[in-house]
Amino acid sequence: MTGQDRPGLIGRDRARLWHPYAPASPDLPLWEVEAADGVRLRLRGEDGIRHEVVDAMSSWWSVIHGYRNPVLDAAARRQLESFSHVMFGGLTHAPAVELAERLVDMAPSAPGRPGLERVFLADSGSVAVEVALKLALQFQSTSGHPLRQRFLSIRGGYHGDTFAAMGVCDPVDGMHSAFPGLLAGNVFAPRPPAAASATPETVGAWASVLADIAAAHSGELAAIIVEPLLQGAGGMHAYPPECLNVLRNVADRHGLLLIFDEIATGFGRTGELFAADHAGVVPDIMCVGKALTGGYLTLAAMLCTGEIASTVSRGQAGALLHGPTFMGNPLACAVANASLGIIGDGGWRADVARIGAGLETGLAPALALEAVRDVRTIGAVGVIELHNAVDVTAVTAAAIRQGVWVRPFRNLVYTMPPYISTAADIEQITAGMTAAVAEVHGRVVHERVPARAGGAA
């Protein structure tokens, strides 16, 4: 593309492309990415002005090792020299087998609890959730419970944009109203209390309500599905680890499967390898994605116990009824193995702790802004919550002027930075987020006591 063509790129985009959660031909500002390296993006706006920004979003939480990572680049090149894709029906290959073995070895485990032994490779997080829900239904039917056709979820959850996944998202803040009559009528319990303000009494009260709802619907429920410890796109709500034990006990009591959606929380983001590890709880089914390939290629996985796999395999269908064209894509699997190899070295734990401390310190001044309701952190996640909806366009532009890329939503300005972010990067992110909120939404009114990690949503 010549220099003369480049200024028209965003206009050409508007004429042909459709962006997520946006109208066709949006009036919202767009920035062209000209280059990406490490934790930085080089952007060019419609006005032709260039900005170098720190990517505070890890490209929707996936680029945990940074852009142009030499280990991941090399893995992709090596696989391209052999083959980039083959169908997974009737064929197999080393990258997929190695990836399944790695995932099983890394999965949550506990003494006396069946481990996650079988892996189904999918193309995206939403598809992994679809597969998990299908699996639960097939398992219950084969086990002699064909009426167990619904799911128990919790308010504030988000599990993806495909139809079954939408059906277990929050029924009010999700997309149920846009598709009346088409989404399954599932059962919802209140969201758990916020981690920062929870007490044994509030957790106990929530557990009692959850238990009552599960008991009332147990004959029609196949599984419980939740995002463990941190609800992401539903509001960045952190809740206490002991709630995962409650969910495990309720599922066992009523013969329900427990599904953990670790697509956003997996691979270290909350400070443990998986959010489930904070409580030592092992789910029956677990979904992973996003950071699985370090943000290089789209890939997700569904893991389940051996009992579930064998039960469904001897059912009437004789198979799990799903099979994506790009299932087990060798190129994606090879990069995922390289990404998990970096995770396996263990350095992520110190990185996440360091980032978390920097976020907690750096975002605390935002509490002095009149528009800010709460500031909270968990692992390598930092959130500024406003009283009212964020002016997404204005805050995004203001943050770019501060050298930071964020993508706010609802009333939240948040960050999930790459694990390779330095202390200076985190300082720039937190200062830029606070300055952007201050510029667009408010003024300093007084000092407040900083919220503890895992504050209320």
Automatic annotation (TrEMBL):
Pathway: Cofactor biosynthesis; biotin biosynthesis; 7,8-diaminononanoate from 8-amino-7-oxononanoate (SAM route): step 1/1. Gene3D superfamilies: Aspartate Aminotransferase, domain 1, Type I PLP-dependent aspartate aminotransferase-like (Major domain). Its EC number is 2.6.1.62. The keyword Transport does not apply. It is an enzyme of class 2 (transferase). It comes from the Bacteria. Keywords: Aminotransferase, Biotin biosynthesis, Cytoplasm, Pyridoxal phosphate, S-adenosyl-L-methionine, Transferase. Its cofactor is pyridoxal 5'-phosphate. Substrate binds at W60, Y158, K290, G323, R407. One of its GO terms (molecular function) is adenosylmethionine-8-amino-7-oxononanoate transaminase activity. Belongs to the class-III pyridoxal-phosphate-dependent aminotransferase family. BioA subfamily. Catalyzes the transfer of the alpha-amino group from S-adenosyl-L-methionine (SAM) to 7-keto-8-aminopelargonic acid (KAPA) to form 7,8-diaminopelargonic acid (DAPA). It is the only aminotransferase known to utilize SAM as an amino donor. This is Adenosylmethionine-8-amino-7-oxononanoate aminotransferase. It comes from Pseudarthrobacter humi. The lineage of its organism: Bacteria, Bacillati, Actinomycetota, Actinomycetes, Micrococcales.
